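Researcher: First entry.
Model:
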Amino acid sequence: MAALVGKLSTNAWSRVVFGISNHTDNSSGDPFVGYERKTYVATPVDDVSVFFLAIILGPWQVLIDKAPESFLWLFSCGALVNNAESFANLRVSVAHHGISATIAFNAIRFQPSFSAHLLLAFCELVLIQRVSIQQAFPDMLGQSYKLGRHSDVLLLLKHDTNSVRVFKYCWTHSLLRPWGNFLPLQCPDCGLVDAWTSANHQKEYSFECKGENCRKGFVFSAPANSKVLVPGKTRISCWIEIPL
């Protein structure tokens, strides 16, 4: 590894891209690093030398430090970002390693194949056309509505040496994912399938079960400070950006 990194570091790379596909512990969000006594072992994402990103990125740090931009794609299940402690550790760690932008997904059982169009758009817009990733991201998402039906997307942008800015992107559909929220196909109270009558009042979506004597309902409002993105927008669906 040291010889490979040493050879690569002799070139002046303008961009360095890392992609990590890994399982995570469903309860803690910690990524798995291997086996111990025939049992999977997970370790926290943090900036301590024995922790996950330090193990993976540590040998490549010289390339990250030299390149003007570096990108990290985390093709991992959603526990990594859904668990508050794990997500906090991730933010600290990517800031510590100086990663310019990190992309992660929150689907509980994330399927990386759904991100193919997003990744191809990244290669075209960011790597080839050299558009900044924050500027390019709405257009990247505009080509990825099938990904939106599977997972939200999180973009972590380097702010300074100690922190990152975080944006969450949700695909919304007025009948399927109102304001990016899960709407069950079946009423959880009476069991009726295709259960909902809907209404929209001042961008607030209301759903009520059509079942006889069932009054189960849901109300969904726009997330605070959310912004509708134009690329990929249709009459009933779009991506929205939510600063975290």
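Researcher: Second entry.
Model:
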Amino acid sequence: MTDTKRLAFSIIQFLHDQLHSGNLSSGAQESLEVAVQCLETAFEVSTDDQSLAVPMTLPEIFTSATAKLPTQSQVNNNSTPNSVSEDDRAEAERLKTDGNDQMKVENFGAAVEFYSKAIAINPQNAVYYCNRAAAYSKLGNYAGAVQDCEQAISIDPNYSKAYGRMGLALASLNKHTEAATFYKKALELDPDNDTYKSNLKIAEEKMETSSPTAGMGGVDLAGLLSNPGFMNMASNLMNNPQVQQMMSGMMSGAYGGVGGGGGGGGGVPGATAAAAAAAGPPAAGDLSGLIQAGQQFAQQMQQQNPELIEQLRSQIRNRTPSAGNEEQP
């Protein structure tokens, strides 16, 4: 915890320096002041506690760390396989393996760190980017996963796993049309991969349910209306005198017709008629009767055919694409 407090202290110290730099607008200064207060409260530190100070300021630490990384021009100019020594390759592979081990125990943040170190040593290995994309996806950083997949594909355009993981990240961002495109490309390169096939099917279903002509809430309305069990329950409900009374009352109210509980429901038997009459038909614009009818319908469906209810729930639930059981390469 001490190291965490030291880091928080360094960040707060950096923000204080920025506040006194004179380069910020009044709005930016106010935002930084709020950020400082939040950090001090969250980590229970104060800039008055000099025991947490470290020999180097945060910018100095950052400069020292980034100085060890290759510049973009170095990456672009030294992209041949021979630009990385054998020792560096071995070290990068070791870091990748450590990242894979962290993925197995679901320590995804640590996995990202190992893959990032491997990339820093050998930035021309598509596998490292693709593996880090998988870790990013597990952490919910789908935008980062997309960027890493793009980088992996630019390095190796025939790397099927990069296309598949790109599809997963895009699907998680609800970009199902784009996801389907990448799943198709993954299948071109690996036509026997069942995970890509399944994910492509899910993406295409999502594309259909998001179209204006799709069933409400992703429910297969055509299949529902052709289901004998559903139609039988609907018929029984509509023949229920109490429901008929409700519907008659709502219709008369909606069109400004005559109110009253007895005229429209003809033949309503004793207790049911009394309950309907006591409730009275809803006034124009009042949805309470419709809600009551819907609740009764749902209760009757649950009692008569719980299997159908479960089927409907399964249709409505979001189906998510699968990363499969593949291990990191």
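Model: Note on the second entry: DSSP finds 17 helices and no strands in the chain.
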